[in-house]
């Protein structure tokens, strides 16, 4: 007798994962969350074998690097001067959760909103505590584990500094130069303030008494489907942008050849 087909994943074994909150203390995570999305968005992978991850935007104005083999190691996002935009940098420690970094890197692939950016709005929405002191302004998460700090030096140059810490000290820090586009800093702050937990596999949980971890069973096919959905969305958005930019085919009818003109050869 033939065995009856009972559906995809019938022989799969569920794997234990954890939903971790607050997300700022969840640890770095899988860098493919960043790299595969950018590749699907048309970014070029210029990494050398065995070297750090290097990705370049389609217009070659932004480069993203991840190098865990140096101290302190982590992420560097570098934007070249272009038009009215001055050169800018953002550096983030290697324990920066990829879901928070993706707020910034995903925004690099999307058209800029017509609305003026407001870095503090996502933090206020989620009840972060604000404190000002002269030219310094700090917002802290309700549980005190994460912060975003703004300051101006004597010349009026602005610096954005962010990070997270647990009972053992600093988990990670991030810094943005004064020239970093504000809509990118806002995208980062929105991802930082999000109350949504992030998923980590068993064995990848940070040792921190400040995190709350909820055990969940996940099929490998489910995990692949979630990852693929993010990549598919990036490809669809890239195709839509490119189709708008692509010149439309000419629809005018060419003039008829004059009577008695040369005939096409057979």
From TrEMBL:
Annotated stretches, region: Disordered: 240-266
InterPro entries, per the entry: DUF317_SPDY
Residues of the signal peptide: none
Residue ranges annotated for the DUF317 domain, each copy included: 57-113, 140-198
Annotated Pfam families: SPDY
Compositional bias per record (Low complexity), positions renumbered to this chain: 250-266
Name of the protein in its database record: DUF317 domain-containing protein
């Amino acid at each position: 007798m033939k065995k009856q087909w009972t559906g995809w994943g019938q022989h799969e074994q569920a794997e234990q994962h954890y939903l971790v909150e607050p997300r700022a203390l969840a640890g770095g995570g899988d860098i493919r969350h960043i790299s595969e999305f950018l590749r699907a968005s048309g970014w070029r992978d210029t990494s050398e074998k065995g070297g750090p991850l290097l990705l370049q935007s389609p217009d070659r104005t932004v480069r993203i690097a991840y190098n865990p083999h140096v101290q302190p190691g982590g992420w560097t996002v570098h934007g070249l001067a272009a038009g009215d935009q001055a050169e800018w940098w953002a550096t983030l420690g290697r324990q920066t959760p990829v879901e928070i970094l993706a707020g910034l890197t995903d925004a690099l692939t999307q058209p800029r909103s017509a609305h003026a950016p407001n870095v503090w709005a996502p933090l206020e929405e989620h009840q972060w505590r604000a404190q000002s002191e002269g030219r310094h302004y700090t917002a802290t998460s309700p549980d005190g584990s994460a912060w975003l700090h703004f300051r101006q030096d004597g010349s009026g140059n602005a610096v954005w500094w962010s990070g997270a810490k647990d009972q053992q000290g600093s988990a990670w820090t991030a810094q943005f130069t004064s020239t970093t586009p504000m809509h990118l800093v806002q995208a980062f702050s929105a991802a930082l303030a999000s109350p949504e937990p992030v998923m980590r596999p068993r064995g990848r949980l940070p040792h921190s008494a400040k995190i709350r971890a909820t055990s969940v069973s996940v099929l490998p096919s489910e995990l692949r489907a979630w990852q693929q959905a993010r990549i598919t969305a990036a490809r669809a958005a890239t195709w839509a942008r490119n189709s708008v930019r692509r010149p439309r085919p000419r629809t005018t009818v060419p003039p008829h050849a004059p009577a008695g003109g040369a005939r096409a050869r057979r």
